[in-house]
Automatic annotation (TrEMBL):
<dbReference type="InterPro" id="IPR017985">
    <property type="entry name" value="MeTrfase_CN4_CS"/>
</dbReference>
<dbReference type="GO" id="GO:0003677">
    <property type="term" value="F:DNA binding"/>
</dbReference>
<dbReference type="GO" id="GO:0015667">
    <property type="term" value="F:site-specific DNA-methyltransferase (cytosine-N4-specific) activity"/>
</dbReference>
<dbReference type="GO" id="GO:0032259">
    <property type="term" value="P:methylation"/>
</dbReference>
<keyword id="KW-0489">Methyltransferase</keyword>
<comment type="similarity">
    <text>Belongs to the N(4)/N(6)-methyltransferase family. N(4) subfamily.</text>
</comment>
<dbReference type="InterPro" id="IPR029063">
    <property type="entry name" value="SAM-dependent_MTases_sf"/>
</dbReference>
<dbReference type="GO" id="GO:0009307">
    <property type="term" value="P:DNA restriction-modification system"/>
</dbReference>
<feature type="region of interest" description="Disordered">
    <location>
        <begin position="1"/>
        <end position="28"/>
    </location>
</feature>
<keyword id="KW-0680">Restriction system</keyword>
<keyword id="KW-0808">Transferase</keyword>
<protein>
    <recommendedName>
        <fullName>site-specific DNA-methyltransferase (cytosine-N(4)-specific)</fullName>
        <ecNumber>2.1.1.113</ecNumber>
    </recommendedName>
</protein>
<keyword id="KW-0949">S-adenosyl-L-methionine</keyword>
Amino acid sequence: MLSHSLPIITPGDSDDGTVPKVVDRLPSDSRSTHRRIGISVGCAEVRLARSVGLIDRVRDPKQTGGRDRAWYRYYAGYSPAFVSDALDVLGLPEGYALLDPWMGAGTTLEVGAGRGLRVTGTDLNPAMIVISKGRMVGRNSSSSLEPLARELLIDLKPASRRTFDPLSQWFTNGTAGRLRSLCNRIDEVLVTPGLSAMQRVDSMSSIAAFYYVAMFMLVKDCTRTFQSKNPTWTKRRELGAGQISLTAKEISRLFLNIVESLVRLIEARSLESAPEHSVDSLRADTRTLPLEDNSHDAVITSPPYCTRLDYIVGHLLELSCLNISAESIRSLRDAMIGTPTMGMKIESQTLGENVDRFLHAVASHPSYASVGYYEPNFRRYFEGMSHSLAEIDRVVKPGASVVLVVQDSRYKDIHLDLAAALTDIGTSLGWRLSGRKDFRAVRSIAHLNPKTSEANRAIKPTESVLLYETADSGHR
Ligand SMILES: C[S@@+](CC[C@H](N)C(=O)[O-])C[C@H]1O[C@@H](n2cnc3c(N)ncnc32)[C@H](O)[C@@H]1O
């Protein structure tokens, strides 16, 4: 049972732009009662007024400053400052359960845990699981991180391999062997032995993940010449062996430099100790969340974009460090929502007025592949989102707040109002849009796609922060 209390906000407090005044507190174990009473005496409207007023103060999710982006550069991520503002809007008391189903680099988890919330993040990309776990290392472990890194580097010999090492797509065989040997050392010392690559990801502690993050950064730094402007596309050598060569000494120096810089970052943060008991990073598909019904109080997240970004190809280097097989990479690509691949079967369900209108316009477009590739591809995206929002609805408590960050986009001359499209899906689940703030996006995700036309490149997209209240128990 939670030992905290839930603030009750006076009506109209947020209208004048001031921080809402807490006038009373109810014990948290009467939270559901509060909800019930709230509806009968009008508190639901009070809660709504608070949200609508404060949503205006939320900072641009994509504007990052200073250390904000330093943990891991993720083109699809939002800023800790944004999560902090969103949490102010929600007013979740300590100990409450926050979910980020598309957690990416774990920004929501770090900020939520720093505020004493229980946080769960899910993502299908194993690289993001490791990045978000590594992010949870607390300040009290920081002094041991460099000494342990030095130990991991002692007597590093190239790992002998008969089979193809995915790292040799960029590195010479000798260098790939040395890098693999460092990964193996992390596994030997810090990860349960004898596990498959995916099981290692699932069981990895935040300390082991921390060193893997250092490995990711090392290989990314060394392969800059292979990286194109589009972060989801890392070029590989056409033929077999890569060309980058590093001695064991160079690898050690780079690894230690990166560990040092990450340690500085951890020391500058407020997270005291790794809150392993109250933070969960799970490798899971949002269409089938491994979470219990009614188990979370609120959601802050940004869903995959509807711009055919390949989140898996964008992380081939990280996935190669983790030794994820080519076969797993293929099935992961198919399973990602918004993927450009054609893996998942489509169901042809009705997805709301805005989606149906958009899909109809795409299918009617005269350009090559509109009907054969693009329409089914967009349909697959919306079917994935429809199943995922239904799952989110299942795992949150009645009347929970859900914050989504989305960006609009274009296909040819057809505008996709993603905020309206997802609101249709939410409405079909009984959700109510109770607040919205739009920003002119500084970075357009669609522009990362080299196939985006010049005309569409000139249009600055809108990034929307959407705040929903899910249905109260009576309406479910
Ligand atoms: C826009 S990003 C989220 C970024 C995150 N808010 C951050 O700050 O780092 C969307 C995430 O959805 C994940 N994703 C795509 N399809 C998924 C699925 N079916 N299940 C779970 N996660 C998925 C991608 O791996 C990606 O990390």
